Amino acid sequence: MPSERTEVQVRPGVEADLEALTALYNHYIRETAITFDTAIFTPEERRPWLLSHPVDGPHRLMVATGANSQEILGYATSSPFRQKPAYATSVETTVYVAPHNGRLGIGTLLYEALFEALSGEDLHRAYAGITQPNEASGRLHERFGFQYVGTYREVGRKFGRYWDVAWYEKPL
C-alpha cells in the first residue's frame, strides 16, 4: 500500500490490467451501492468495456499503480454520457479506488491525469452520478470544478433498498 502520493504512477489502462480492474470493480458490485451493477463480471465479460476506452479520444481509462509493485490502486474513466449523437461532446466520468487505498490522494491523481488527457478533445461537459450518501466523492468532484445540479430520488434498487443519485456537471 502506498504511503505517499509520489509512490503512485498514473497511466492509460491496457489489456494486461483487465483481471485486476475486474476484481476491483467486482468489489464495488458486491459490497456497495456505488455502482448499480448487481452481478459480478468475469474478465472476459469486462473486455468490451476496457476496449471501449482507447489511449486517445474522449473515452479514456486511466489506471493508478504502485510505482514499484504495479498493483492496481484505482482507475478513472470518461465514457459516453448517453448514446444519441447530440450527446457526443458530453462524457460521464467516474473514479474507483481500491478499498484499502482510500484517503491517499489516488482519486485526485487519477482525475488530474484524466482531465489533462481530455483537455485536447472536442468535449463540452463532464457529468458524474454519485450514489448517496458519498461525501468523499462529492468533495472530490467539487475540487475538480463539478457543480451539483440535482438528485434523482430512489432511482436505483440494490441490497433491498432504494438509492438516490446526486448529479454533478463540469464545463470542459
UniProtKB/TrEMBL annotation:
<protein>
    <submittedName>
        <fullName>GNAT family N-acetyltransferase</fullName>
    </submittedName>
</protein>
<keyword id="KW-0808">Transferase</keyword>
<dbReference type="Pfam" id="PF13420">
    <property type="entry name" value="Acetyltransf_4"/>
</dbReference>
<feature type="domain" description="N-acetyltransferase">
    <location>
        <begin position="8"/>
        <end position="172"/>
    </location>
</feature>
<keyword id="KW-0012">Acyltransferase</keyword>
<dbReference type="InterPro" id="IPR016181">
    <property type="entry name" value="Acyl_CoA_acyltransferase"/>
</dbReference>
<dbReference type="InterPro" id="IPR000182">
    <property type="entry name" value="GNAT_dom"/>
</dbReference>
